[in-house]
Task: inverse folding
C-alpha cells in the first residue's frame, strides 16, 4: 500500500517551503480556511482552461474550479479580454456603472424569482443581506436553516453547518449548535435548525416557530455539504408552508446556479421569495448578489424612507461586472445541457470504478457537480453525510493530487466547459489507479 501523504510531501517541496513562510504571517499559512489541509496546502501558481500548475510546476486537472466558480475554466479568452478592457478604463469608481446594469438585467431575465437584484462581494454578504431583508420585511427575529447547509461565515450563518452528531439533538428536531467559539448565544436563540429532506419534520418545526420566523433559507442542492439534492416533495412542502404562514423562502443558489440558466429553482419549478447568488456570476472575481420579490427588495431603495442601507466600496465593481457578464453570456442553455450531460456520465463511470474495486461509495451528482462519500448508505442529509469515512476520503484526495488531479479535500468536484472526454477519462482513470494503490479493508 502506498502512503499518499508521504508521496505528497516528496513531490511538493515548493508548496512546503511557501507554507513554512506563510505560517509566519498568516494563521495556518493561508487566508482561506477551506484551502487548508494536512500536512500543508497546495500553492497554485497559475491556471489555464481545466488545468492548474502548482509552485513546483506540476500540472493537474482541476476538478473543483475554485469550489465550482470557474465554470468556463481558467483564463477564458473572452473573460480575460473583458477584464483587460475594463482595467484600462478604470478599476473602481465612487459611482454606479453601466456594466452592473447589464449584469443585473441578465440575471433578472434568467432567474425566475428575481424582480430586482443588488450586488456585493461574497456569498457571505449575500446571505447576510437576504436574511436581514427578511427580518426587516416580516418584523420577526428568527431564521430557519438546514442542518448541514452552508451560507457563509456571518453570525446567523454559523450554526449547525457541521455539528457533532452526538451534540446535534434528535434527527427530526435538530438542536442549534455553534460553528465557532465566537458564535453568540443570542444567535443560537434566533436560529431554527431543520432536517433536510424530511418534509414532515420540517413543516412541524416551521409551524411551531411561525410567529417569530422571518425566513427559511436553504440550498435546493446542498453544495459544499456533499452535493445533496433536495427532493421535489421537500421543496414543494417548504414552499407551501412558508407561503401560508407569511414566512419568506430564501434559496441559496450561490453554488446551484450552475445547474441551469435559472438555477435549481428553474429545474424544480419552485420559486422562492429571495435568492442569493455568487461563484459563476463573477467570472472568477469576487462578485455575489441577492435579489427577489419587488416588494421585499424595495426596502433597499434609498428613495424611500425608511430604507435599509447597503454599503460596499467594491459592490458592483466594474471589473467584476465585466468578468461576470462575459461569463454569463457564454453560458447558453446548450452549454448547461452539455455540462450536465457530462456530469451525469462522470457519476456513472465513478460508480462503475468503485464497484470494480468492491469499495462502498455513494456518488452524489447534481448537474455538473458531484461528491464522493465513503459510505454504504445513501447520503440524503447531514446525518448520513457525517457518517461517511473521512480517513478514506482524505487518502483518496491526496492520492488524486499525486496522480495529477485536484478535487476539494471533502471530495467535491465540478466540471468546467474546457473539459473534454479525454480529460474526464483521465480523472476516472486516476481514481481507478489510486483505489488500486490503497487498502480499503
Result:
Amino acid at each position: 500500500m502506498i502512503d499518499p501523504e508521504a508521496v505528497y510531501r516528496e513531490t511538493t517541496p515548493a508548496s512546503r517551503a511557501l507554507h513554512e513562510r506563510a505560517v509566519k504571517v498568516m494563521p495556518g499559512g493561508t487566508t482561506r480556511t477551506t484551502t487548508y489541509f494536512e500536512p500543508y496546502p497546495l500553492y497554485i501558481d497559475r491556471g489555464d482552461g481545466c488545468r492548474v500548475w502548482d509552485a513546483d510546476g506540476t500540472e493537474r486537472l482541476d476538478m473543483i474550479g475554485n469550489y465550482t466558480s470557474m465554470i468556463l475554466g481558467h483564463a477564458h479568452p473572452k473573460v480575460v479580454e473583458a477584464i483587460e478592457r475594463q482595467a484600462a478604463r478604470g478599476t473602481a469608481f465612487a459611482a454606479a456603472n453601466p456594466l452592473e446594469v447589464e449584469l443585473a438585467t441578465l440575471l433578472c431575465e434568467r432567474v425566475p424569482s428575481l424582480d430586482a437584484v443588488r450586488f456585493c462581494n461574497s456569498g457571505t454578504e449575500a446571505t447576510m443581506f437576504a436574511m436581514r431583508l427578511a427580518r426587516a420585511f416580516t418584523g420577526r427575529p428568527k431564521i430557519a436553516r438546514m442542518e448541514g447547509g452552508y451560507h457563509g461565515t456571518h453570525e446567523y450563518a454559523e450554526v449547525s453547518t457541521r455539528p457533532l452528531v452526538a451534540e446535534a439533538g434528535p434527527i427530526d428536531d435538530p438542536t442549534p449548535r455553534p460553528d465557532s467559539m465566537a458564535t453568540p448565544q443570542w444567535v443560537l436563540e434566533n436560529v431554527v435548525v431543520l432536517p433536510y429532506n424530511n418534509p414532515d419534520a420540517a413543516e412541524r418545526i416551521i409551524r411551531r416557530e411561525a410567529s417569530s420566523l422571518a425566513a427559511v433559507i436553504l440550498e435546493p442542492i446542498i453544495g459544499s455539504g456533499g452535493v445533496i439534492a433536495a427532493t421535489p416533495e421537500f421543496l414543494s412542502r417548504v414552499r407551501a408552508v412558508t407561503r401560508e404562514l407569511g414566512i419568506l423562502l430564501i434559496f441559496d443558489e450561490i453554488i446551484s446556479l450552475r445547474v441551469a440558466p435559472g438555477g435549481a429553482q428553474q429545474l424544480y419549478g419552485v420559486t422562492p421569495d429571495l435568492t442569493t447568488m455568487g461563484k459563476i456570476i463573477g467570472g472568477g472575481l469576487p462578485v455575489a448578489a441577492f435579489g427577489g420579490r419587488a416588494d421585499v427588495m424595495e426596502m433597499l431603495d434609498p428613495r424611500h424612507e425608511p430604507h435599509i442601507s447597503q454599503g460596499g466600496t467594491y459592490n458592483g465593481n466594474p471589473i467584476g461586472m465585466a468578468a461576470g457578464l462575459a461569463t454569463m453570456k457564454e453560458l447558453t442553455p446548450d452549454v448547461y445541457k452539455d455540462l450536465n450531460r457530462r456530469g451525469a456520465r462522470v457519476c456513472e463511470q465513478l460508480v462503475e470504478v468503485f464497484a470494480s474495486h468492491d469499495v462502498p461509495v455513494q456518488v452524489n451528482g447534481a448537474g455538473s457537480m458531484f461528491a464522493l462519500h465513503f459510505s454504504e448508505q445513501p447520503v440524503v442529509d447531514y446525518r448520513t453525510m457525517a457518517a461517511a469515512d473521512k480517513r478514506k476520503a482524505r487518502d483518496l484526495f491526496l492520492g488524486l493530487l499525486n496522480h495529477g488531479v485536484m478535487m476539494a479535500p471533502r471530495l467535491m468536484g465540478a466540471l468546467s466547459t474546457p473539459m473534454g472526454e479525454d480529460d474526464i477519462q483521465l480523472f476516472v482513470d486516476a481514481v481507478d489507479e489510486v483505489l488500486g494503490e490503497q487498502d480499503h479493508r
About this structure: The CA atoms of residues 91 and 319 lie 6 Å apart.
